[in-house]
Each structure stands twice: as C-alpha cells, then as structure tokens.
C-alpha cells in the first residue's frame, strides 16, 4: 500500500499529471500544479460532476462566485471566530475538530512507525525465524500502539471540552516525540489560522483585510436571494458551484489529499424546514450512486455518519474512499439547517427568506449540502486506476485504467512507420476526430513502446495506421484494458470511441 502510494506520486509526475508548485524553487508545501494530462483529467471530473448535478437536475442551477468576499461573510459563517486563536477560546467545535486532526495525524505516524517495525522484522526473520528478535521488536511495536491507544482514548474522553493546549500538554506528558522529525516541540500549533489573509486597497491605512475563501459554500448562501428571484426558483432547488478554496492546514500531507489551495465542488439544496432529513437521505444515496457510476468498486466506498456535529449541522455524513493510505473522507453531506441564511440575514440586515406559495408562508429555507474535493476525487480515481500487470509472456506493463469518460486523451493515432504516406493518413484521422475527442499523435519509437506509453497515460484507444490502410482504408484499434486489437474501417472510428467515452 505504501509502495502503491509512492508509485502514484511518481507516476503522476513522470507522465505529466501533477508537479509540486514552483518546483524550480524546491516547491511550496502542500501546493501542487496540474500538468498537461492532469488538467484534462481534472476538467473531466469537474464536468462529470457538473453534468450530473446541474444538467441532469431541472431544479439545480450553477454559480461562479468570486474567491474574494466581503469580510463580514466570514464573521457570519463562524469562520473568523472558529478558526482563529485556538488557544484562547476552546468552546468551538471546529477547533475541537482541528485537535482531532492533529491527534489523528500523530496516531497515524505512530502507526506507520509500528508497521515499519513489523515489516523490518518480517524481512529479517524470513525463513530463519528468530524468536528473541521477534519479541524485542514486538515489544517495541506494542509500546507504540499502547501510546497511540492511550492518546486516542484520552482525547476521545476529553475532546468535548478541551483544546489544542491540552493536546500539546498530553503529548508532552506522554513524552512522545514526533516520530518523523524527532521533535518534541508542538508549539507551532499555537500560531495557526486556517484562513489566508490578504488586503484590498493600495495604501496601508485604507486597506481592507480580506480572506481567501476557505469554502465555496458561502458564495452560494450570500447569493441565495439573487438566484432565487432572477431564476424564479421554487423550493426545493439547488445551487451548484466549483472553485478554489484555501486553507492554511496545520497538517498538510498525503500529496493532493490535503492541500492548502484546492478545489471544491459544492451544491446547496434549499428545502422546506422539516423536510431536510428526507433530502439528506436522498442526497446521501444520490451522491454515493454518482461515485459508484465511475466503476472504481463498491467495496472502496463507505459512509461515516458523524456523531459529533459542527455548530451549524443537525446531521452529517462522509462518503469515505479507500485511498492508498486507507479509508478517508472524500465527500461530505451535511444538513446545515437554516444556520447560514439566518446568520447572513443577521449580519447584513437583508431578508433572506422565501415565500412558499403552496403554504402561503414566508420562511428561511433549510439547507442540505453536498461537498466533494475535486483534488481528492482526482486522487481516488488516479490511485485506483494505476495497475502493474503481469502479462501472459511474463513481462509487465503499467496501465492507468481510468474510467474512459475521464481519460485525458481518448485516442492516440500511430503510424506504423514514419514514411509511405502513413503519417499523413494518421494526421487526417486526427483532423477528423479532434472535433469530438481529445486526440494524440505519436510516431516515435516502435509501436509496442508507443502502446505502453498510452497505457501509462490512460488513453482508452490506440489507432494504428499501416500499409493495409493504404489499400482498404481500415486501421487497427487497440483497447487499453484488454489489449485486444480489431481491424475496422476509418469511418467506424467515431462511433466506436463515442460509445465508450461519452458522459
Ligand atoms: P477533512 O476532514 O479531510 O479536513 P473537512 O471535513 O474539513 O475535510 P469540508 O470542510 O467538509 O472538509 O470540505 C468538503 C470537502 O472538501 C472534503 O470532503 C474534501 O474532499 C475537500 N477538502 C477539504 N479540505 C481539503 C484540503 N485541505 N485539500 C483537499 N481537499 C479538501
């Protein structure tokens, strides 16, 4: 599993999917760039989501709100108080939650260390099992695990009313150093502020303090009345949005799983008060089905229903995915009550209500939200698709078995040789198909190597132009997963590709 994760990171880099940000300067922590193939895969995931949410639902419309918002937005939403100075005020659930993350991170490191010990022991024992050595190693493992358990148990009991200072104190008391750095100094948690600040205005005295949005949802809430009126929307209805969000995460790690700049795909569904649980269940099912439609395997998904709820929620669940480092949150489905609309009403002094003609009544709608990280979706799809296969002849191949609808390039056209007019025919095929599909051309190296390269890029089809093409206008089409090749007429290509890659 650890190896798989390493392969994912290096494959993403080698094949032009993801690079560390500003790598010439040695990168920027937890910030990444999507390269030529990554940007296509990411765009296709976004479109797949948008189509399912907006195009397929008559009562859901889109929005593209600005990243910069009036600073009062974040007072109303609770972010300013909740995410600031965690050591001063300890009553907020979001802070407890951050403590949770810290503990979880810590426990995971200890676990990883324990697992490494076990691995080492296994490698060392091999056939000649040495009992004494095993016991020593085992004792060390047990020690790590016991400490791990103790932290979790104690934090589990105390998280209700403790804060990060207690986490720090606890860690000091247990005298555990960070297994990665050896450091016993966890004071840096004191400094963190989850939101990135910036300034609007040129001169220092007139500048206004702003934040980069830590979630896209608030752009939807503040536009609720605008969209409802201009779109003549009737409850229940939804507003969907994709876009960047920024969080100064204290434990940013695991590649694109937890980034400081990331993209969310969120939808806020406005419903009658009292009907929110029905819609909460509806969206849980609908969203899980969307994930399953990609074919990554039912066994890789599970729900995690929250017991501890954020201040704004009356029900919440995560859809968790089996990432290379275990089951982790991929998407959140939250019943947010009327918390956000009421808060914006209070802070802005504007009415954010809805007149329900059927009930002949004004009310503040309740909200059920679905929120999925685009980058986490990318990681889920990418890591699940990366396979190392042993072929019949004993050789191996690396293949990225992406769902065809998401593949960056749908087909590559390969002239068998660089002469006899074959490249020209290959170009003609591309000219014809590029209106409908992302196409690639490759004439370098032997055709077998070109197939392998396309396999590693996740391209579902390779079309090979050979000498027979000159005679009868047929080509071979090779399928990525089965490696099966069929001889087909050039005129049939469009239909064959379309049947597999259309959303
Ligand atoms: P986590 O528990 O992993 O910190 P969260 O509960 O804070 O996530 P939400 O605020 O519910 O996350 O955000 C919704 C979705 O946005 C998450 O399910 C996740 O897919 C994505 N997301 C949140 N934080 C990050 C991040 N730092 N990097 C990448 N994706 C993120």
UniProtKB/TrEMBL annotation:
It is found in: Cytoplasm. One of its GO terms (biological process) is glycyl-tRNA aminoacylation. Keywords: Aminoacyl-tRNA synthetase, ATP-binding, Coiled coil, Cytoplasm, Ligase, Nucleotide-binding, Protein biosynthesis. The keyword Cytoplasm applies. Substrate binds at residues 98, 215, 262-266, 369-373. It catalyses: tRNA(Gly) + glycine + ATP = glycyl-tRNA(Gly) + AMP + diphosphate. Residues 174-415 form the Aminoacyl-transfer RNA synthetases class-II family profile domain. Homodimer. This is Glycine--tRNA ligase. Catalyzes the attachment of glycine to tRNA(Gly). ATP binds at residues 247-249, 257-262, 329-330, 373-376. Its EC number is 6.1.1.14. One of its GO terms (molecular function) is ATP binding.
């Amino acid at each position: 599993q650890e190896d798989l994760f390493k392969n994912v990171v290096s494959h993403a880099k080698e094949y032009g999917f993801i690079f560390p940000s500003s790598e010439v300067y040695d990168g920027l922590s937890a910030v990444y760039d999507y390269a030529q193939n990554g940007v296509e895969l990411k765009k296709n995931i976004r479109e797949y989501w948008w189509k399912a949410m907006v195009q397929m639902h008559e009562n859901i419309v889109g929005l593209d709100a600005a990243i910069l918002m009036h600073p009062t937005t974040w007072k109303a939403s609770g972010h300013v108080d909740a995410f600031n100075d965690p050591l001063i005020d300890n009553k907020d659930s979001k802070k407890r939650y951050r403590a949770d993350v810290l503990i979880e991170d810590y426990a995971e490191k200890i676990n990883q260390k324990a697992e490494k010990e076990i691995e080492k022991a296994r490698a060392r024992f091999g056939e000649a099992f040495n009992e004494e050595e095993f016991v020593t190693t085992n004792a060390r493992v047990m020690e790590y695990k016991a400490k791990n358990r103790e932290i979790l148990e104690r934090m589990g009991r105390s998280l209700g009313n403790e804060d990060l200072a207690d986490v720090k104190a606890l860690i000091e008391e247990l005298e555990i150093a960070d297994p990665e750095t050896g450091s016993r100094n966890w004071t840096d948690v004191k400094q963190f502020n989850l939101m990135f600040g910036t300034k609007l205005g040129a001169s220092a005295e007139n500048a206004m303090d702003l934040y980069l949005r830590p979630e896209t949802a608030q752009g939807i809430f503040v536009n609720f009345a605008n969209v409802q009126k201009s779109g003549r929307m009737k409850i229940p209805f939804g507003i969907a949005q994709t876009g960047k969000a920024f969080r100064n995460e204290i434990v940013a790690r695991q590649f694109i799983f937890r980034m400081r700049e990331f993209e969310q795909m969120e939808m806020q569904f406005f419903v009658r008060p009292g009907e929110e649980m029905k819609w909460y269940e509806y969206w849980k099912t609908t969203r899980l089905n969307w994930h399953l439609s990609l074919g990554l395997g039912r066994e890789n998904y599970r729900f995690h229903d929250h017991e501890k709820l954020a201040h704004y929620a009356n029900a919440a669940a995560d859809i968790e995915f089996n990432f290379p480092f275990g089951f982790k949150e991929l998407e959140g489905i939250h019943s947010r009550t009327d918390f956000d609309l009421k808060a914006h009403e209070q802070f802005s002094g504007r009415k954010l209500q809805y007149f329900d003609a059927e009930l002949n009544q004004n009310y503040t709608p309740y909200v059920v939200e679905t929120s999925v990280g685009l980058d986490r979706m990318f990681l889920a799809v990418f890591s699940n698709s990366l396979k190392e296969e042993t072929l019949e002849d004993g050789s191996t191949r690396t293949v990225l078995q992406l769902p065809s609808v998401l593949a960056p390039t749908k087909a590559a056209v390969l002239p068998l040789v660089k002469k006899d007019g074959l490249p020209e025919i290959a170009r003609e095929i591309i000219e014809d198909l590029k209106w409908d599909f992302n196409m690639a051309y490759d004439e370098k190296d032997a055709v077998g190597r070109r197939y392998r390269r396309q396999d590693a890029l996740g391209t579902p089809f390779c079309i090979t132009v050979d000498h027979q093409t000159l005679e009868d206008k047929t080509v071979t089409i090779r399928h990525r997963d089965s490696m099966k090749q069929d001889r087909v007429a050039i005129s049939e290509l469009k239909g064959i590709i379309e049947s597999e890659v259309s959303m």
